[in-house]
Design brief:
about 280 residues; alpha+beta; globular
Length: about 280
């Protein structure tokens, strides 16, 4: 799977952020990291599921970004980072946006083999979606610093996403992806003053990262549509100081290992399998 490598490669490149246009690799008030993570998941799902590829090739499915999904039961509304849906109507002419377009727009860094593979995949475009047509809904969250304070927030935000998805449609697949920072230091943009970058947060690693992962392991997961929880949940651990040095992927403990529930590759395989079994007749 390519998603985690694409994520750290892309986050290694600073991008203009906010009204000031200051260059940051990561900023908590920007959703770039979520978009990059979601793009990678969509790319890997297309690579893994032959049914999804055929649905994309036949224009049976589209995707939506930052889609406001409403829980039918509670009327609660929540924005989901990325959704895969059946089209709700004809695509407006001249407005189609595909994965290649988003890669350019969002500053996604692909190597030569990934770009060649993308060019060989069928196009799936962004278009008008409705809650009733959602097949897959993805929420991506990151914890880069202040791990102790972030634990309940991260849990609540992810848990509310799967609850909203299944409150809108029990057949939809709810997918969560958490990015956890295992770096010992981090420069948090909101903590800096007067354009300086000299306020550095220090972490006790790997304890802090492991604490977040243990909290994520409490999130409900389901193996049947009558149950409550995520249909797929992945955890990616990175080492990122946000000081201009490259971000790297952590593959050793405390990162999930191959065969474990939260291992990214296994999450993609599981979601692809669920998609193939659930939506074969659309």
């Amino acid at each position: 799977m390519h998603g985690p490598d694409i994520l750290v490669r892309s986050l290694s490149i600073a991008q203009p952020t906010g009204e000031s246009g200051a260059l940051w690799q990561y900023h908590s008030r920007s959703d770039r990291h979520s978009k990059v993570a979601c793009w990678g998941v969509l790319f890997d799902l297309l690579r893994t599921s032959s049914l999804f590829r055929s649905h994309a090739a036949e224009s049976k499915v589209i995707f939506g970004v930052n889609f406001a999904m409403r829980d039918f039961h509670t009327k609660r509304k929540k924005k989901l980072d990325l959704v895969i849906s059946r089209p709700s109507g004809a695509m407006p002419e001249g407005t189609t946006v595909g994965l290649s377009d988003l890669a350019t727009k969002w500053g996604i860094e692909l190597n030569a083999s990934e770009r060649a593979e993308l060019e060989g995949l069928p196009g799936i475009v962004e278009g008008p979606v409705t809650g009733a047509g959602i097949l897959v809904a993805l929420e991506a969250k990151a914890t880069m610093t202040a791990h102790g304070k972030a634990r309940p927030r991260l849990y609540d935000e992810l848990n509310s996403s799967q609850s909203t998805v299944h409150g809108a449609s029990e057949q939809a697949l709810a997918v969560g992806l958490a990015v956890v920072n295992a770096s010992e230091t981090f420069i948090s943009p909101p903590s800096q003053r007067d354009g300086r970058r000299d306020v550095v947060s220090h972490h006790k690693q790997p304890r802090d990262a492991q604490g977040i992962i243990e909290k994520l392991e409490e999130l409900p997961r389901r193996s049947h549509r009558d149950e409550v929880g995520f249909d797929g949940l992945g955890i990616v651990v990175v080492d990122m100081s946000n000081d201009g040095s490259p971000a790297t992927l952590v593959t050793s403990w405390p990162a999930p290992q191959p065969g474990e529930v939260f291992y990214y590759d296994d999450m993609i395989t599981r979601v692809a399998h669920e998609y193939d079994g659930r939506f074969a007749r659309i």
